Each structure stands twice: as structure tokens, then as C-alpha cells.
Amino acid sequence: MSKVALITGVTGQDGAYLTEYLLKKDYVVHGLKRRSSSFNTDRIDHLYQDPHTENRNLILHYGDLTDSLNITRIIQETQPDEIYNLAAMSHVKVSFDTPEYTANADGIGTLRILEAVRLLGLSGKSRIYQASTSELYGLVQEVPQKETTPFYPRSPYAVAKLYAYWITVNYREAYKMHASNGILFNHESPVRGETFVTRKITRAVSRIMLGMQEKIYLGNLSARRDWGHAKDYVKAMYLILQQDVPSDYVIATGITTEVRDFVKMAFAEGGVEIAFKGEGADERGYIASIDEKVFKEKVGGEYLSAMSTKKDKVVVAVDPQYFRPTEVELLIGDPTKSKSVLGWNPEYDLPGLVTDMMTGDIKLMKRESYLRSGGYRIMNYFE
Ligand code: NAP
Ligand code: F7E
Hints:
Blueprint: E1 4-8, H1 13-24, E2 28-33, E3 58-62, H2 68-78, E4 82-85, H3 92-95, H4 99-119, E5 127-133, H5 156-175, E6 179-184, E7 187-188, H6 197-209, E8 216-218, E9 224-225, E10 228-229, H7 230-242, E11 249-251, E12 257-258, H8 259-268, E13 272-277, E14 284-290, H9 292-298, H10 304-308, E15 314-318, H11 336-342, H12 350-382
Parallel strand pairs: 1-2, 1-4, 2-3, 4-5, 5-6, 6-11, 7-10, 8-15
Antiparallel strand pairs: 9-12, 13-14, 14-15
């Protein structure tokens, strides 16, 4: 018999990678997706199965974490062995603009799932994974951060996730539920949401190198993050629910990098060297040199002459609108427990992640440029 998983947030970055991973393991996957006025299933379209397909193993349900009745009904209908609660308003900066909604979806949403499992008598059957976050550490009280490091959240997002973390622990202790927190540090990929800093950078750098954009505006260039690859991190989620005993785990690489250095690494993928000058809001990034051989190989010879005219020009600037009212300056996780207990071992390092993201975005932006130039008419005609 195949195991049954329910994934909330199935249309998000992690939802997509986890769905792919569980389908390969022969699971039947139920996904909760929000109704939207436009298609929001891009990331899982390659896995989609028509509702008329016999014995489908990926079934999508309309739903929302702010709707208890809907959550309860879907859990009752699907009787999941494993629930991965990945749905959330996940953007830290946006949570300052939508604090009440964020508390409802990210905090109380988790309670709705736990309470539905309890009321339906599924406490002994359904194992629950809660998508907790390194944002809980906020104003860090210890370096590196591990499972025992005290929390100090610094945004409405992190405060909502703090509630979700503790209500998960409380239901585990009070009702003996198999409920665990994965305290995941930042993880990225070619399908990362476009407004998170890594993807914002890889998209913009690709566009600059292809002559589609002049410069990128960023916020705090000195913030440091422990960045891993989402493909590796969803494996940890799965491993957490395979343990006999529920527990909480830090999932991280143990290496921290400045946003400024991520920018340099992204440009370096195309052989472009960036030098930073100035401080604070006046800091700027210039093109210091171009390795033509690497540029031709990674980006394309036809874009080189336009790129060469940008030498010594500003391609990175700071816009204070991206600063946060309270910032998390430094995150670096200690993954000792997940490595020893779960046997979790990430495949990607940061250079591998940057290469994967830049390769994806250069390809995507070339396609976008072609479509914008009217190419789609020709393509559609011949297809
Ligand atoms: P993401 O790409 O932003 O995906 C979030 C998902 O949640 C999307 O499918 C979104 O639907 C859905 N969603 C949002 N509000 C909802 C609601 N009210 N009801 C139902 N679904 C809702 O996030 P991610 O990067 O995959 O992260 C997955 C989870 O891990 C999130 O809980 C996030 O807070 C947490 N986390 C992420 C990281 C990271 O670095 N990526 C690190 C630690 C923890 P739409 O597609 O319709 O918007
Ligand atoms: O910011 C700085 C920004 O938005 C990273 C979510 O998945 O990971 C994510 O939250 C850093 C911050 O991610 C820009 O100030 C500079 O210090 O990519 P981010 P995040 O806030 O760390 C955690 C673990 C989660 O749980 C969240 O769900 O980069 N930064 N300039 C910028 N950030 C953005 N977005 N845009 C900028 O222009």
C-alpha cells in the first residue's frame, strides 16, 4: 500500500520539490492549493495529472489555511499518513504590511491542522511536519544557532511562526502526536519566489548580462544568510517524519555569506567581476572586468559587445525602501543533530546553488527576450 501525504503550500517552491520527491517514492500526494484568478500551479505543472486519469497519485484540493472547516474536511477525506504544513505567507518584508493576515495563516493555520487531526481521531495515524524557520532566531542569541538556541523573532512573520513552533511542540507533548518542527535556514532554487533576494539577484544579473536591464536595486547588502538548495532541504522534511520519535531539527549548511558576496558570485557565473564602493545607502557595485571567454561560454558571444560598454558602469545600487523595520543581520545554523540523527547530507554547496540558479535564469530570460521580440507568433505558428 502506498503511503498518503497531504502537502499544504503545494504550489510553492518547497511544495513542488517535495511533491516530486514523494511521488518518486510511490506516495499518493494530496496538495492544498489556493483559488487564484490566474494559474498558480507553474511549479507543479510537469507533475499534474488530469482528474480523469485512473489511479492518479497527485490530487489537488482547493483550500486555505485560514479556513478551519475546509482543512478539517480535506484531512478527513484524505486520511493522510503524513502532513507537511508548508503553506504560509512566507515573505518577511511583506509581513510588516500584512501582520494580521500573516498571524492568521502562519500561526493559527498550524493550530487548525493540529486540532483537525486531534478531533478526527487521527493523532495516532497522521504524522505532522511543521515548516519552522531560522527567522525564529532573529536577533541571534548564540552563534551558530542550534536546536537549543533561544528564539528572538524580529518580524510579524517570525512571531507568527514562533506560535506555530510552540503549538506544534505543545500538541506533541499534550496529545502524544507525531508532530515535528524542521527549523530550516534559507533555501533557494531556480524556482525560488522572484522577490526573495537570491532569485531577485539571479534574475536581474541574467537580464543585465543579456542587455534587458541596466541595474539592480537592493536593500541591506551586509545581511548574512546560511543558504542551501531546496532540493536537499525537502529530503530533510521527509527524513524527519520517518523517525520513530518526533523531534525538532535545524537544517542548515553551517556556512554564512553576505548578500553582497552572493551578487558577486552571480555575476562571476558569466565571467563578470563586480567591485563595491561607498557605504550604506550610497554603496554601488561597478563592473570591474569581464572574462570574455567565460562570458561567451556561459551567456553567449552575441551579447558580449553590449556588455563590454558597461565596463566601469554602476549595475548594483541600494534603495532604502528594501530595508526592514527590524532586520535579521546574521544567520548561521549548526546542522550537527540532523546529520547525526537523520543522516541528512546536502548535495549542493553555495557555488553549486548559484550555478543552478544562474543557468536556469539565463535560459529563462533568453526565452522571455525572444517572446517579447514577437518570437511567440512564429513559435506558435510552427508548433
Ligand atoms: P513559498 O514559495 O512562498 O510557498 C508558500 C506556499 O504557501 C504557496 O503554495 C502559497 O500559495 C501557499 N499559501 C500561502 N498562504 C496560504 C494560505 N493562506 N492558505 C493556503 N496556502 C497558502 O514558500 P517556500 O519557500 O516554499 O517555503 C515553504 C514553507 O517553509 C513556508 O511555510 C515558509 O514560511 C517556510 N520556510 C521557508 C524557508 C525558505 O528559505 N524557503 C525557510 C524556512 C521556512 P500560492 O502559490 O497561491 O501563493
Ligand atoms: O532576504 C536582505 C534582506 O527576503 C534575505 C523566507 O523564505 O528565509 C526567507 O526570509 C536577506 C535579508 O529572505 C534585498 O534584508 C537585501 O536580510 O531573501 P530574503 P529572508 O528574509 O531571510 C527565511 C528562512 C524564511 O523563513 C522566509 O520564509 O536579504 N536583502 N536586499 C533583501 N531581501 C529582499 N527580499 N530583497 C532585497 O532587495
